[in-house]
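Supplementary material to the annual report.
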Amino acid sequence: MGLSKKDILDIESLSVEEIELILDTAESLKEISTRPIKKVPTLRGKTIVNFFYEPSTRTRTSFEIAAKRLSADTVGISASASSIVKGETLVDTARNLEAMNPDAIVIRHKSAGAAHMLAGLVDASVINSGDGMHAHPTQALLDMMTVREKKGRLSALRVAIIGDIAHSRVARSNTLGFGKMGANVILAGPPTMIPRGIEALGAPFTYHVAEAIKDADVIIMLRIQKERQGGYLFPSEREYAQCYGLTTERIAGAKEDVLIMHPGPINRGVEIAPDVADGPYSVILDQVANGVAVRMAILYLLLGGPR
Amino acid sequence: MGLSKKDILDIESLSVEEIELILDTAESLKEISTRPIKKVPTLRGKTIVNFFYEPSTRTRTSFEIAAKRLSADTVGISASASSIVKGETLVDTARNLEAMNPDAIVIRHKSAGAAHMLAGLVDASVINSGDGMHAHPTQALLDMMTVREKKGRLSALRVAIIGDIAHSRVARSNTLGFGKMGANVILAGPPTMIPRGIEALGAPFTYHVAEAIKDADVIIMLRIQKERQGGYLFPSEREYAQCYGLTTERIAGAKEDVLIMHPGPINRGVEIAPDVADGPYSVILDQVANGVAVRMAILYLLLGGPR
Amino acid sequence: MGLSKKDILDIESLSVEEIELILDTAESLKEISTRPIKKVPTLRGKTIVNFFYEPSTRTRTSFEIAAKRLSADTVGISASASSIVKGETLVDTARNLEAMNPDAIVIRHKSAGAAHMLAGLVDASVINSGDGMHAHPTQALLDMMTVREKKGRLSALRVAIIGDIAHSRVARSNTLGFGKMGANVILAGPPTMIPRGIEALGAPFTYHVAEAIKDADVIIMLRIQKERQGGYLFPSEREYAQCYGLTTERIAGAKEDVLIMHPGPINRGVEIAPDVADGPYSVILDQVANGVAVRMAILYLLLGGPR
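Predicted assembly:
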């Protein structure tokens, strides 16, 4: 069975069966990264464009490594070194890339909807690796993979997502993804970071971190995006840490075998205490390793078969 | 038959037979980019350095994809991340690159003559991908390939090149290239954009767009390079569009099966109206696709045989 | 015999036998770069991350070419396009990279000790390609390779290292390396550029260039790092050139078959006169070529065997 779609744009457009297929495939491909020769010829002769309008180390590197371990060729484009400085529109850039016959375009863009628009313009597979505050589906998939790997299931788990819900594509994609797979998601954050219309995400929310953490099987801390907010959403980092940061004391309210997750890069001492980030419940680095596996799975499922 | 030269520096130094060889080879290699496995082992073990002192998406990406589809290894160097910030001269950078035994160096540089100088310093093949206002031979070759593909010939076609002739390496290389292949080139642009000594290019010129377009088989619109001109060459973008921009009305004066071309990135609504850029006569995206094919042909012809 | 260590961090931690093994291996691998097909499959399926926090053309390119000629996959990360702008610590970046299972991480960083810290955090091999004013071991190894290639030996040669000793990781690594291999190193530079505690390097020093050059078999000129010093260590470039720059006249005091070396990029007319840099005694470009060979050797010795 393959994935009968061209693009991975968001969690909404993936069925439960498709998510399971991606996670199963990722699990079986994960082993490749631990071999002495970390490479299979599956995608030899495929061209993958990594198109990053926003700075990124981990996601870009993760996709590039995933592609290379499948023997695909990669071409990287970053906004600073590109025609974007010459004022070209995304539509024109997309059409131009398409004319070079890439098999997939991985795109990160500051505008919500950029990946969808691109997907409508090109025959290549488009993989959304973050569009504004909208979606980051591969992050949600690697988070679900990590939880399933550790807990054996996703259904009926209590998953608390804590922080700047309003500005987080990770929060949106995870709320939808874990919800779709039968988990019970609860959102928490300061009032300034809970968006209007949050009910549409289909998960309850609270302004009290302790309430969200209570009996949680999984806690996903969101990154405080200092570079985006200009500091007007909370008085200070110290105050944020006191009210919403994840500390050992706060974890005590959760289940005994709780998993602590974070999409990275972490702000130590702000949204997460160092001893928690590095502690026994943290699976933050498992998330990174599973990121490569999930991206290999997606590239394989989109490009690996006959089209 | 091979290409018995080390470098591709400009159109002047290519004979009619060499241009035909490059175009024929590009035509035969173009099919590779449409295969499921877009890769042949021809240049395995060759090292190609892409040395871009000026920002570029399409040309750099085109060369990188061309090299990888021939299985060459590519190394990219951009000015911002290089020794150039440390004040090294181009000569020293060139000699240093040479000592690492690259097979080809693709160079874009803001100074006319940079590629020629480099070619004189290194044993590697040098491919000029744009040097100041001087030359951009691979652009001219892909333009000629596109016209030949659509029209079946180059000779006796009327080719209008319109815009900032004075500052355009594309205009120079295309005027020389199409002229060499027997086409009748006519240049048009505002007086501030027609250089002194334009007669040396061997093509007539006019300040009236309609006159250039009349009975044209091919119209090549040049990009208004906002980032270079500081706006002093024409009063406003709107006025430029009114006087020199390509619109559906203006095209009516050309032949019925006219081809509309642009080297990209386009300024929609300035030198070209959106409905023209996306219209039935536009072959702008064919140019991009042929760009990969022409660059594959050049790399193959320069590096593919025994040296 | 292999190299029974995980990392290459500095010269101190390499034994005489290990240095000889690296140089012997580099000599035998050097020939690959002169073949028509410059590639062997030795490191196929290995992932090498080039992590450059400081701009670099030659070292980064040298490592990338070395890796590709051994068929390894490379992923480049530069500070400007990375999570560093998001404020992540080096420790967290390192752990995240590690989770993606790279086989080696090549790091350049402005802080002394960065490579050591990284090596302690990750299972991957770490190769220090320059950490602050501390060490640049691959530069010292390629310098030793170049001298051994030209002179047939390192022992009992007189090696003068001239310039900004205080701020030069190249000076430190070379003093220790040549000293370890039995050469007699002498250091020279202006008083402002000779560090306190220089005696610990185990080499005599002088403020008089002529004294250092006298009877030298090898002269290693250091780069004046304008971008680091703010100009307060010497009155002007002209004065530096007059007092400490290497000129044909000054070379006359050295042995007849003296070798002139420089790690590059050179400041022509400052620390070295153009006719000296390009003259018959200069082996500056041999250094660059040997740089690729030494890096191939290190990657091969660290990653090539069973681990």
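Chain A is about 40% helix and 15% strand.
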